[in-house]
Amino acid sequence: MKGARELPAASTAGMPATSAAPPAEPTPITAPAPANAPAPRPQRRPAAVIFDMDGLMLDTEPLAARAWIDAARAAGLPFDHGVTARMIGRNFADCRALLADHHGAGYPVDDLMRAWHVAYDAIVEREGLVLKTGLAALLDWLEAARIPRAVATSTRRSRALAKLDRTALTQRFVAVIGGDEVARGKPAPDIFVAAAQRLGARAADCVVLEDSEPGVRGALAAGMAPIMVPDIHAPSAALLAASVLVLADLIEVRDHLAALPA
């Protein structure tokens, strides 16, 4: 899916048969893939890079997991910690639905989620936010290479901006799209399509950096080339079978992109 809308075809009435064809679109950075083909990988430097936030740029997933335990204790609610892995990469509405489905009818999901926000904010206030290894170096390289950047996070926009402001990252991105700004959350492609539109880039010319499987699948659904930098959970067998590019950290991402032809 491309960020730019298609223009209606011009009429050919009265034109000679030898009239020149319209110019071809630029070659995308990823070759089009047939059905069931391996995940696309960039063949040259991207026109734009789209970043996830939690777990990719900020080391916040362990804080979020701890906050669920603190929230359940504060609210006096039973809580199966096993569900937290399924919520990584998902937006607020999807997390709410997962909790309700997992714990059953009558479970006070909204009470738990309110308590989670209080617990999470308290942890952040005590411990701060830590940047993931290599983030500053990657952003420095992208800025030097004049490659625009956007954040596409399942976190709601207001909370995402608060985190980015706290870590002095906001000004390093052209756009920030929160999970509450699109109709469907990851693994749907909506947030990545919106990010490409904000950057003025075609989907096929974008690289997406993600730590979660829902994010990687959303990037693939958007027709973009994902690079996975795993955080808490290793890539699944399905992602490995699809030949998704997996790198250890953002330093490796910088080196991989820098080695591509411009």
Distance linking N and C termini: 23 Å
CATH class of the largest domain: Alpha Beta
Measured by DSSP, the beta-strand proportion falls in 5-15%
Give helix and strand order, one letter per element, not per position.
Answer: EHHHHHEHEHEHEHEH
Query: Could you give me the name of the CATH homologous superfamily of the largest domain?
Result: HAD superfamily/HAD-like
Count of discrete alpha- or pi-helical segments spanning 4 or more residues: 10
Question: Tell me, what's the shape?
Answer: globular
pLDDT < 50 stretches: 1-27, 31-35
Radius of gyration over C-alpha positions, nearest whole angstrom? 20 Å
Give the overall pLDDT as a whole number: 88
Could you tell me the number of beta strands? 6
* Order of the strands making up the biggest sheet: 3-2-1-4-5-6
Major sheet summary line: 6 strands, parallel
Our count of domains comes out at: 2
**In terms of structural class, how would the helical and strand content be classed?**
alpha/beta
Second-tier CATH architecture of the largest domain: 3-Layer(aba) Sandwich
CATH topology of the largest domain: Rossmann fold
What portion of residues is helical? Answer: 25-40%
